[in-house]
Amino acid sequence: MSNDLLPIGRFARLCRLSVKQLRHYDDLGLLAPAWVDPSSGYRYYRPDQARDALMVGMLRELDVPLAAIAQVLADRGTDALREARDRLEADVARRRHALRLLDRVLDEGLPETAVSVVEESARRVRTASEPATPTTIAAATGACVARLLENFGGIPKLTGLFPLDMADEFEVRVAIESEAGPDVLPGGPFAHALHVGPYEEIALTVHGVLAWFGDHGHAPGGPVREVYLNDPGSTPPEHLETRVLIRLEDVR
């Protein structure tokens, strides 16, 4: 063993990490000690490993995933750090959105949604789909809309289709009416409410419609439909109108 090696306790203090953290990073193959005593299993580190250890600690404090940190240490970290930054930015946007909704509820109370039952006709459509998570719904929906408009045009004949059950991963679809479309949006009885305001607040209206189902003892059927009535490019967010439709499964 070299006299230059530091025992794990001294190295931990130098790097502002705990001994437990250093052992965990070693077990993961992220930051291996320079030498391990074969008889005691005690770990020793070179002083020049402190830079990597400090980098690991700093990036973990920034919520960078361990897999991305491993790529950083292997000098392949630019893309990994960009991806980590994008995830953090999406999380910040999601939290800001949640704060805006919470502020609205604090100011106005829980929304009272006016719900009516309407009969919808079946429509032929073309659809685009994207995988999504609860934090990437807006981006996935935007990608679907962009693809449909590029190929077919059609605002305000776009309908977003979202699952009732929000799993960790799911599919977002957007449909555009087309007489030659290969798919059909089924008709039937739907609970309907008109949402006026930003798209990011539609969840409040959807919750109001689902509460109506509970109040009236009906069974909802997915997907949740959002029919976009305005062009968001020329309509202020507070004036956007969206029809929210959820099928009544127990009414024929």
Tell me about this structure.
With 252 residues, this protein is an alpha+beta fold. The chain has 2 domains: 6-61, Orthogonal Bundle (Multidrug-efflux Transporter Regulator, Chain: A, Domain 2), CATH 1.10.1660.10; 116-248, Multidrug-efflux Transporter 1 Regulator Bmrr, Chain A (Alpha-Beta Barrel), CATH 3.20.80.10. The chain contains 7 helices and 11 strands. The chain has an 8-stranded antiparallel beta sheet with strand order 4-9-11-10-6-7-5-8, covered by helices on one side. The chain has a 3-stranded antiparallel beta sheet with strand order 1-3-2. Strand 2 (35-36) and strand 3 form a beta hairpin. Residues 5-75 form the HTH merR-type domain. InterPro entries: AraC_E-bd, DNA-bd_dom_put_sf, GyrI-like, MerR-type_HTH_dom, MerR_fam, Reg_factor_effector_dom_sf.
Give keywords:
MerR family transcriptional regulator, 7 helices, single chain, eight-stranded antiparallel beta sheet, AraC_E-bd, elongated, three-stranded antiparallel beta sheet, Multidrug-efflux Transporter Regulator, Chain: A, Domain 2, 11 strands, Reg_factor_effector_dom_sf, Multidrug-efflux Transporter 1 Regulator Bmrr, Chain A, 252 residues, alpha+beta
